[in-house]
Batch of 2 targets.
Target 1
Amino acid sequence: MSKLSNSLAHIDVTTMLHPYTNAKVHEKNGPVIMDHGKGIHVWDSNGKEYIEGLAGLWSVAVGFGETRLKDAAARQMDRLSYYHIFSGKSHEPSIRLAEKLVDMTPANLTRVFFTNSGSEANDTVVKLLWYMNNSLGRPKKKKFIARTKAYHGITIASGSLTGLPNNHRDFDLPAIPVRHLTCPHFYRFGLPGETEVAFTARLIAEAEAVILEEGPETIAGFIGEPLMAAGGVMPPPVGYWQGIEALCRRYDIMLIADEVITGFGRLGSPFGVMHYGFQPDIMVLSKQITSSYIPLAAIVFSEEIYAAIADNTGRIGTFGHGFTGSGHPVATAVALENLAIMEERDLFANAARVGQHFQAALSELADHPLVGEVRGAGLIAGLELVADKRTRRAFSTPGMVGMRVFHAAQECGLITRAIGDTIALCPPLILNEAQVLEIVRRLRQALDVTAEWQRHEGLA
Ligand SMILES: Cc1ncc(COP(=O)(O)O)c(C=O)c1O
């Protein structure tokens, strides 16, 4: 790239540090610059078309270029472009959205706190429970339980809850007291000869042993994604959430469902907790809440938690936590319009219906020599690539084949995510059946190209 170049790509590589990017590789290769989008498609600055098979970052539920969201934002900007909700102020969009979220979520969740991102929301959960337990005179009840391969964000507390090495290494995390349990993914972590039911029982026994070892009086919360997404799209084994819920009740531990990806119809049910049949004390929501047209996250929690926190604010004189953008009127107005679109177009039901075709069509790729497991629910799926299908043996260089498939798919006009050697898909909820077939066609092509490369390199 010429030093004199004033191309966007040149400006990018000479001015930015990108999230989740190998900066040295990026300096050489430069960015793929996205230009515009419509429905499930995006186009880059060279005019190449892609199916956005990950809905951006698991989030553009209503598809790209939805003019109703643009209009909702413009209307709110005209009326009240900004206001905060600190110190007794409020505004209609955040009030209406809080009411809507309380109405949509399980009946025991009655209170809402707004943040800008999922990471901030999970940091807020940690602080809410610390504050609550201090208020209740339980100053030792501060630890968290999470799972290996969990993703809860990257700020100091949420990054600590996340159970992925790259989010800890060289960031000096975890920085809060947290124990990470075995990842509840049967295909990868089940023992030879173990049944799924026995796997669940082993994981619940492990959770109980950790609770007793640490002391239940020291544990504030158990946090989990109902279906683990960013760590590799891993649905829980049968009975897992019922077992965890029972432990949380027995030992007075708050159960936090991080629904940042699973919320708002992704699994074909309104929320992941409904899909798997358990009741949380706290739910964390973001991404599809606005189809990510604008940043917003929300924590929805029980009256019991609210009451303890409110009492303490009465004693101290304030709740010393909140963001300039908490409940931003434009973001909450966009969320309300986005949820209205989802209702009118019945997108949760669409995710359930088209999701069945999606899972069935993808499962046909299990016959491919590279594919070990196809898994998912509704409109989220993961394909785990393996060196040996029979023994489930992973590749000796983790992530290399996954990255190959990711690039080949992008060449074929399908954007996915490679999580190690798992290829993740999470298309917009507006997907139709013809588009399912096109996704699978492009993905099979990418798998074939990669298998051919393997043979050529003598790796197969
Ligand atoms: C389950 C879950 N929680 C939290 C987050 C963090 O959200 P954000 O990137 O908005 O901080 C993510 C992001 O992917 C997520 O998947």
Target 2
Amino acid sequence: MTGTATETATATAIHGDAAALDVRGDFPILARELDGRPLVYLDSASTAQKPAAVIDAVAEHLRAHNANVHRGVYALAQEADAAYSKARAAVAAFAGAGGAGPFTTIFTKNVTEAINLVAYAWGRANVGAGDAVLITQMEHHANIVPWQQLCKERGARLRYLRVDEHGQLSMEQLDEELARGDVRLVAFTHVSNVLGTINPVAEMTARIRAAGAVALVDGAQAMPHMAVNVRAIGADFYAWTGHKALGPTGIGVLHGRRELLEEMPPFLTGGDMIASVDFDGATWNELPYKFEAGTPPIAEAVGLGAAVEYLGALGMERVRAHEEALTAHLLTRLAEVPGLRVVGPAHAVDRGGIASFTIDGMHPHDIAELVSRAGVCIRAGHHCAQPLMRALGTPATARASVGVYNTPAEVDALLDALLAAREVFGL
Ligand SMILES: Cc1ncc(COP(=O)(O)O)c(C=O)c1O
């Protein structure tokens, strides 16, 4: 095994300038070439690349400590138990949800499952006919469809906060909606995966809770990119996903207020989530296990624990400074391309490291395909946000997104590839 996440991150990090992290050497995949060209990975909003510390932690766990959790008395099983608990403690601490605070940290399959957990377990018990659920036009399908299904099933209404021409939400509209008195829950993203908008989550949460409604934040695009403190944000539920946070696929996180989770019925049922089972019924395990039915993602949790340890050692303020500077460079360079329009807030300070754009005369899929010939990986499509695309009046955009390992030179490589792509189209 190579060094721990902390050792690796401290060994390769950063010299002086807070906005210039240099951690590329920690990410083995970045040494790859595609058709003889260096890999330029600008699709971290889709999934992040993994540092060796994470890859090694997962491999080491499987090689030396693998056993099921919560059932064995032998030493190996106790090692697996300890590794799983340690990972949960690290993840909770990273998010500001650790210790004896008001939150319990539950592992799920991804953020989609975390949101479904709340929609099913809290929603079916608390939302009924005549109630409303409020979401926003900028949500990912993962934070739309579970609420559509809940509202259909319970005879409740689903309403949307609009996105304005700057890609932002209106706090006045939020207040108006809450004043109607029927909103039971508001679910909204911390950072939009299309617009990049950073929403004022603490302010929104304060208004929502003051109105007696429950607040759920989708933190999929925030947790890996800035200092997030779930306690300071104050939402009732905060959900995120491991694979975008330098961790493995197959693991997500739900931080939830203990008193709400205690009252909620289980989501998935079966082994491990029970206290006892009889022929005609069962009682539930304590938190967080009540919401972790079946064998949990053990090696994935170990990997995510290593990922947050790695990010924590870099320092999330430095991660944000690095990515904000890169985003500013990205916005400046994209403005040089004739006919290119970026959606969302104008300034990097108001955005996560995401720039979605269209180019007159080119379909976004053609843009992504043509730049991929230069080894540049960006995404094109509706980004699982079709209602937002409708509100923006476009079926699709191309999207470049940065991570902690990207450099200004890679943004420049995207620019060269975009200009060459326009030439292919005779523009
Ligand atoms: C804002 C947001 N929410 C939810 C998701 C869904 O993530 P997962 O597929 O890991 O559940 C994504 C992924 O793109 C996202 O960007």
